[in-house]
Amino acid sequence: MMDAERWQRIEAIYHDASALAGDERAAYLREACSDDLALLAEVRSLLDEDRPRSFLDTPAAKVGGADAQPSSAPGVGQRLGNYILLASLGAGSAGEVFRADDTKRRREVAIRLLPASFTADPQRLWRFERDARALAALKHPGIASIYGLKMLEHRQHAIILEMVHGLTIAARTASGAIPLPLALEYARQVAGALAAAHASRVVHGGVRTSNIVITFDGPCKVLDFGIGPTNRTTPDDMRGFGRVLFQMATGRTPADGPADSSGGGMSALPGDLPDSVRNLLAACLDALPERRPDARTVLLQLEKQHSR
User: Do residues 104 and 156 share a domain?
Assistant: First the structure.
């Protein structure tokens, strides 16, 4: 049986190589594996396994259609390829998410099974493929990793994701506001994740408290990049960020529309919230997208506040 350290090395090289292609990948593998032919063979087997079942390399127009889904919905206990579905983590318009055992790589993952409404739209699927490639190459502690996009049994399309353990901000704020120092720290981490993604031209499309997890042993992680509406923009992400920060600071969902004196307006913010952050938050929630700050500006302001 291969030891854990060996598997970790194989996995690290595999993920780095997955973001490369052609001669660049070959050169990287020669350097990373050196004269360890067994290591090279293991990594290549993982890369080869991805090729026939991945739809990243298939034109989006060819992978949709009415026959793209299995005749019956997969469920807990079912095996799809080398993945065993262990538990359902929730379902929505972008498909059901399962905690799963990756028997090939001996790790726990999350699998989102995409519905026909998603895969039948070539433009949406192409856009997600593009974003997935960019995110796979982006190494950021605040973004949950995308390990790959696969076509499993019965033409079931699936996204293989990092399994993130923790508590969503939605669950954390269900009982009230998060203490302000912690809320600002979490906001700084989320802004950093958005800034990194936007720099790679990836827009989240649905930033909300339910897809940001406060992990048990590390930073906040933003989940579900790229599965939001097709007409999403970076200002939309910043409005979502503003709503997240507001909810963390108050325990309430902000009112839609202009700020007012109701419980969902700016007056609900804690009195000790620094003016600079209050102004930044108001700008993120501005009704006019062109007046919202970009993620980099928000991050710099929160970093400045953090250093005080």
Answer: yes
Q: Please indicate, yes or no, whether residues 46 and 68 belong to a single structural domain of this protein.
A: no
How many structural domains are present in the chain? 3
Instruction: Yes or no: say if 197 and 203 are a contact pair by the CB < 8 Å rule.
Output: yes
Among candidate residues 99, 73, 69, 96, the one with its CA nearest the CA of residue 85 = 99
**Torsions phi, psi for 113 (to 5 deg):** -90, 115
Q: Are 273 and 267 in contact (CB under 8 A)?
A: no
Regarding whether 94 and 41 lie in a shared domain, the answer is: no
pLDDT of 288 > 60? The answer is yes
Half-sphere exposure of 240 (CA within 13 A, CB side): 23
Tell me the pLDDT tens digit for each residue of 31-59: 889 888 888 887 887 777 555 344 444 43
Distance CA 211, CA 149 (A): 19
Distance CA 300, CA 126 (A): 33
pLDDT digits over 112-128, tens only?
Answer: 888 877 777 777 777 77
Where in the sequence is the domain holding 75, given as residue range(s)? 60-162
CATH of the domain at 207: 1.10.510.10
HSE-CB at 59 with a 13 A cutoff on CA atoms is 2
The verdict on 171 and 302 lying in the same domain is yes
What is the amino acid identity at position 42?
E
As a whole number of angstroms, the distance between CA 41 and CA 175 comes to 51
- Tell me the pLDDT of the chain averaged across its residues: 82
Q: Are 44 and 142 in contact (CB under 8 A)?
A: no
* 84 and 184 share one domain: no
Residues 251, 184: one domain? yes
